[in-house]
Amino acid sequence: EDQVTQSPEALRLQEGESSSLNCSYTVSGLRGLFWYRQDPGKGPEFLFTLYSAGEEKEKERLKATLTKKESFLHITAPKPEDSATYLCAVQARSGNTGKLIFGQGTTLQVKP
Amino acid sequence: NAGVTQTPKFQVLKTGQSMTLQCAQDMNHNSMYWYRQDPGMGLRLIYYSASEGTTDKGEVPNGYNVSRLNKREFSLRLESAAPSQTSVYFCASTPGLAGTYEQYFGPGTRLTVT
């Protein structure tokens, strides 16, 4: 069964304190892995798509990496405005339905 | 360009009442999705529509029906609301099924069933 697990559930950082969020997945053939940011009371906002092991993508203080079993979202020198819930999702090759399987998310709080 | 819009933003229902959640996108996308989000459960797919005229069940379809009214609009209906359907509902769209595309989400509808 396709599954996505994110850890930790919650993370508190001081401003400037770098860290990483983990997304472990099992899927019958990975078509793509997606990272989203969700602010309280809003819908998820797309950040990155990763397609194959070894791939990396960056956006401002965020860098996403991918291996055959997991993905990391590295946050370098975070600021309070990076506080949000970060969601990871996978799309399987089988079925060609476009469906995404989401993890439960990691809620990040960055204190000034 | 509004992206994905949802109405209403908030709704309170009594057990047994019915309602329809509306979703529209202006990006000329082919595929549309309905999710529910509950604490600790992540986003779970209720129904999806690969293209105009088609709909399919997702992970948690019981108690819901959908209608793909046209290419822009995809509605979700609760025929007889139950407290277990208290949740935040998100609509999403993507260009199509062929290939790997990110999904674009609406702002959500917060539903409480008492």
Task: Summarize it.
The complex is a heterodimer of chains A (112) and B (114). With 112 residues, chain A is mainly β.
Q: Explain this structure to me?
A:
- The complex is a heterodimer of chains A (112) and B (114).
- Chain A contains no helices and eleven strands.
- With 112 residues, chain A is mainly β.
- By secondary structure, chain B is mainly β.
- In chain B, a hairpin with a 6-residue loop joins strand 5 and strand 6.
- Chain B is globular.
- Chains A and B meet through strand 4, strand 5 and strand 9 of A and strand 5, strand 9 and strand 10 of B.
What key attributes describe this structure?
heterodimer; A: 112 residues; mainly beta; six-stranded mixed sheet; five-stranded antiparallel sheet; globular; B: 114 residues; four-stranded antiparallel sheet
The helix content of chain B, as a percent range, equals under 10%
Helix content of chain A: under 10%
- Strand pairing plus helix content of chain A: what structural class? mainly beta
Give the low-confidence spans of chain A: none
For the CA atoms, what is the radius of gyration of chain A? 14 Å
Identify low-pLDDT runs of chain B.
Answer: none
Calculate the mean pLDDT score of chain A and round it.
94
- Got a strand count of chain A? 11
How many DSSP H or I helices of chain B? 0
Counted by DSSP, the helix tally of chain A is 0
> What is the H-and-E element order of chain A?
EEEEEEEEEEE
From the N-terminal CA to the C-terminal CA of chain B, the straight-line distance is: 36 Å
Indicate the overall shape of chain B. Answer: globular
**Which strand-content bin applies to the residues of chain A?**
over 45%
Radius of gyration computed on alpha carbons of chain B: 13 Å
Note the quaternary state here: heterodimer
What is the count of β-strands of chain B? 11
- Largest interface, by Cβ-Cβ below 8 angstroms: which chains and how many residues each? A-B, 25 and 28 residues
- Morphology of chain A: globular
